[in-house]
């Protein structure tokens, strides 16, 4: 059976880039620090819940978190919960063989710790309603996860290059917004993992830009223009994301300035040569989109400040 041009491109890249994957895997393993979720959870704050143990039911006043930090932690945790779907997506976009498979499995194992530690923290500190959280987990995971660009290797690698950094920013800012030093310490540890994951994928895409500049440039533009966080299918995600954005935990300005631009700058997208045809067109599209996004971010910031000023005036 003959391969399509897309399949030929993917097959060739998987072969050509495997030495890069092995090199980046070894670099990652040399830098990754072993850590244990149970050491970041204040177990002494825990107590039995209602149910078979006949403990105390959860109530909102037990939570010490602000509504914004609470919602952000819930979104971050439910996002981590869909790990089986992400594992399937990335192993399909990449490969289960050789260094590719070793990386995918290592990445999955590290990501799994994030869901473990966040859920244990939320439960021990009674920060969220555990019944509502479990129901939300069931609903979210039953919906599954489908990558926006199917099994495209280049689109998949481009997506995780940005998404891992976006997740790092979200975790760090959630920790700072929590008002709890223990939560901030825990999420800083999680964010450190996400940063190493971002570096792996970013370096992989840098090699892809050298090997197939036009196809890689097109994938980058497609991903940036259509970017959605992996938890976008969470029930009530739009409402939660608005609350999170208004609090400054993760908004358009952060997405533009702290996620997209640093990665694109690392790849030297707007100063490098070698693009022709659709690659050059894709880069032009990307530049236009970033300008529009920057303007939208400024408009959002202005409106947010106006809302805050009105709220302060009413208080006065």
Automatic annotation (TrEMBL):
<keyword id="KW-0444">Lipid biosynthesis</keyword>
<keyword id="KW-0276">Fatty acid metabolism</keyword>
<dbReference type="InterPro" id="IPR009078">
    <property type="entry name" value="Ferritin-like_SF"/>
</dbReference>
<keyword id="KW-0408">Iron</keyword>
<keyword id="KW-0443">Lipid metabolism</keyword>
<comment type="similarity">
    <text>Belongs to the fatty acid desaturase type 2 family.</text>
</comment>
<dbReference type="InterPro" id="IPR005067">
    <property type="entry name" value="Fatty_acid_desaturase-2"/>
</dbReference>
<dbReference type="InterPro" id="IPR012348">
    <property type="entry name" value="RNR-like"/>
</dbReference>
<dbReference type="Pfam" id="PF03405">
    <property type="entry name" value="FA_desaturase_2"/>
</dbReference>
<comment type="subunit">
    <text>Homodimer.</text>
</comment>
<keyword id="KW-0275">Fatty acid biosynthesis</keyword>
<keyword id="KW-0560">Oxidoreductase</keyword>
<protein>
    <submittedName>
        <fullName>Acyl-ACP desaturase</fullName>
    </submittedName>
</protein>
<keyword id="KW-0479">Metal-binding</keyword>
């Amino acid at each position: 059976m003959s391969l399509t041009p897309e399949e030929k491109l993917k097959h060739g890249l998987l072969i050509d880039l495997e030495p890069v994957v092995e090199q980046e895997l070894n670099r990652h393993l040399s830098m990754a620090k072993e850590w244990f979720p149970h050491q970041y959870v204040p177990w002494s704050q825990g107590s039995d819940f209602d149910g078979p143990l006949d403990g105390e039911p959860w109530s909102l006043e037990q939570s010490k978190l602000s509504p914004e930090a609470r919602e952000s932690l819930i979104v971050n945790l439910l996002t981590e919960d869909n790990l089986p779907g992400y594992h399937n997506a990335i192993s399909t976009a990449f490969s289960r063989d050789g260094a590719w498979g070793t990386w995918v499995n290592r990445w999955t194992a590290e990501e799994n710790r994030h869901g473990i530690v966040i859920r244990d923290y939320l439960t021990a500190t009674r920060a969220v309603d555990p019944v509502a959280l479990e129901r939300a987990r069931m609903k979210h995971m039953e919906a599954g996860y489908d990558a926006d660009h199917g099994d495209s290797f280049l689109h998949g690698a481009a997506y995780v290059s940005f998404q891992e950094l976006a997740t790092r920013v979200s975790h760090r800012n959630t920790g700072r917004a929590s008002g709890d030093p223990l939560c901030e310490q825990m999420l800083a540890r999680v964010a450190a993992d996400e940063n190493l994951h971002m570096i792996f994928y970013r370096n992989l895409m840098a090699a892809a830009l050298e090997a197939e500049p036009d196809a890689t440039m097109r994938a980058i533009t497609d991903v940036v223009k259509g970017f959605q966080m992996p938890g976008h299918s969470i029930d009530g995600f739009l409402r939660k994301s608005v609350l999170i954005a208004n609090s400054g935990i993760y908004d358009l300005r952060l997405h533009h300035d702290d996620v997209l631009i640093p990665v694109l700058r690392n790849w030297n997208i707007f100063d490098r040569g070698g693009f022709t045809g659709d690659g050059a067109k894709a880069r032009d599209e990307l530049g236009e989109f970033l300008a529009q996004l920057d303007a939208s971010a400024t408009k959002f910031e202005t409106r947010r400040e106006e809302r805050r000023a009105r709220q302060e005036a009413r208080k006065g």
